[in-house]
Design goal:
Mean pLDDT of chain A: 86
Low-confidence stretches of chain B: none
Strand order of the largest sheet of chain B: 1-2-3-5-4
CATH class of chain B: Alpha Beta
Shape of chain A: elongated
Low-confidence stretches of chain A: none
Helix content of chain A: 55-70%
Bound molecules: adenosine-5'-triphosphate, magnesium ion
Helix content of chain B: 25-40%
Strand content of chain B: 25-35%
Strand order of the largest sheet of chain A: 1-2-3-4-5
Number of helices of chain A: 11
Number of strands of chain B: 5
Shape of chain B: globular
Number of helices of chain B: 4
Distance between the termini of chain B: 14 Å
Distance between the termini of chain A: 92 Å
Radius of gyration of chain A: 33 Å
Number of domains of chain A: 2
Mean pLDDT of chain B: 95
Largest interface: A-B, 22 and 26 residues
Oligomer: heterodimer
Largest sheet of chain B: 5 strands, antiparallel
CATH topology of chain B: Heat Shock Protein 90
CATH superfamily of chain B: Histidine kinase-like ATPase, C-terminal domain
């Protein structure tokens, strides 16, 4: 058994006490984690390092004997990433084990400087590698967290809005992948039902690129809406998107398309039997309506 | 042809397709592509990356900024070790899909770029190289 393994086993409680002291002075975030929790986490990790060092090589932390330690460090990193610790705070948690370990080695090997040097070197290699591993795991967890948040934000950024009686619109912003389009499609269809709408406007001004997958999703949504008795208008097709769609060979002939959301709204109003008319300013009504326009219900045709 | 800079991007999941698309956008802007050309290249990269993922079981894309002396351009090479394409002409037909896609990704991307090369061997994988010049 290596000297390090021996020390880890023999002096567990002293090591732990010193390590806790180190942590409390170096990087203590009481706002994020209470002392009891930190103590429990440290104890658990130290025990698992001790058992790995007993069975395996202390400088080969990627070996199978160290699997338990790696697993714990990955868990700790992930939970700290979620709790809002910074990467250096998380890495320091591990690095702060060095000082207590060195102190023990110095005391134990005071009479044999060569052995002391060799063991200190081993301890450095071990703690450094564990620290780097923690750092890597932390970053990975952080990346996942960011990806997840981005996804959540995408969901938030697709509200279906009611524009007028019987007219709903969904302004799409950002990249449409399968998951997101599914959500968009469902919320649009359920809003159509809830508001008893006859026209739905899908605005893609904020969509950077329309590929075959996006087009297919859009077409499916439009077909589903049609089955529910609502007509869809696709608006906000910018010139570069129009050209790309043509080159891809996507057929949008069956879809009502409009360049802008305003055009789409005018068409939607018309489809629901309304027109926008300019108010006669002479009548003194203009002050009530800034753009001097008013939406009027056009008389419905008999039997329609 | 000289390569001015290059980067390899792994394509292992749907997020990688989005990441690649963003990189292609950044490089297209750096090359001063027009808005239309940017969009064409981004869309082609999206199609080919998704094919690499969905049909090829994942792979990678080598992005290269190239110059042939007179012009600079963006070259993308998609590579996977998936099942390969048994009949390339058929795969390039508009509307042909072995999945439930529109079957326009491959043929469409060919129309969106200036150069298009495809090599595929059943059981070995697929390699598609496209270039769009400034
Ligand atoms: N990298 C690849 N490996 C194996 N087969 C491929 C690969 N790329 C394309 N294919 C084959 O070529 C067919 C046509 O591809 P294409 O991209 O045109 O259509 P799709 O992916 O099925 O649908 P979409 O229109 O949504 O892209 C695919 O269905 C698939 O069988
Ligand atoms: Mg495809």
């Amino acid at each position: 058994m290596s000297k390090i393994a021996e020390i880890l086993q023999k002096n567990e409680s002293e090591l732990l006490a010193d390590w806790m002291k180190e942590q409390l002075t170096a990087v203590r975030r009481r706002d994020l984690m209470n002392d009891g929790e930190l103590q429990a986490q440290s104890t658990d990790l130290l025990r698992s390092i001790a058992s790995a060092a007993r069975n395996g090589n202390v400088t080969d932390v990627s070996g199978s004997d160290w699997a338990g330690v790696r697993e714990r460090l990955t868990d700790i990193s992930a939970s700290r990433a979620k709790q809002g610790f910074s990467p250096d705070e998380t890495a320091l948690f591990v690095f702060s084990l060095k000082q207590p370990l060195f102190t023990r080695l110095r005391n134990e090997l005071a009479k044999d400087p060569n052995a002391m040097f060799a063991e200190m070197w081993n301890a450095t290699v071990m703690v450094d590698r564990l620290g780097l591993m923690t750092f890597g795991a932390f970053l990975k967890a952080k990346e996942q967290l960011i990806a997840q948040q981005a996804e959540e934000m995408l969901e938030l950024s697709t509200p279906v809005v009611k524009l007028w009686q019987g007219i709903v619109a969904i302004p799409l912003i950002g990249t449409l992948d399968s998951n997101r389009t599914q959500i968009v499609m469902e919320s649009l269809l359920s809003t159509i039902v809830a508001t008893n709408s006859k026209v739905a406007i899908i605005d893609i001004t904020g969509v950077p690129a329309v590929d075959t997958l996006v087009a297919q999703h859009l077409l499916k949504t439009i077909t589903a809406a049609k089955l529910m008795g609502a007509e869809c208008i696709l608006s906000g097709i910018r010139p570069q998107i129009a050209q790309t769609i043509v080159h891809l060979g996507i057929n949008l002939n069956e879809v009502i398309t409009k360049a802008s959301l305003a055009d789409a709204l005018a068409t939607a109003l018309q489809k629901t039997g309304k027109t926008v008319v300019r108010i006669d300013k002479q009548n003194g009504k203009a002050g009530e309506n800034k753009d001097g326009a008013e939406v009027k219900q056009t008389p419905e045709r008999k039997g329609a | 042809m000289t390569t001015l800079k290059s980067e390899s991007v792994d394509i292992a999941g749907p997020t990688d397709v989005v990441i690649l698309r963003q990189k292609v956008r950044a490089w297209s802007i750096e090359l001063k592509f027009s808005l239309v050309d940017q969009t064409k290249m981004i869309t082609a990269s999206s199609e080919l990356a998704r094919n690499t993922l969905d049909h090829g079981g994942g792979g990678r894309c080598l992005m290269e900024m190239v110059s042939n002396g007179a012009r600079s351009g963006l070259r993308l090479t998609f590579e996977d070790h998936g099942p390969g394409i048994p009949d390339i002409d058929l795969a390039l037909k508009d509307g042909y899909s072995t999945g439930n896609g529109m079957g326009l990704g491959l043929s469409g991307s060919k129309r969106l770029v200036n150069e298009f090369q495809i090599a595929s061997k059943v059981g070995e994988g697929t390699r598609i190289c496209v270039v769009r010049w400034k």
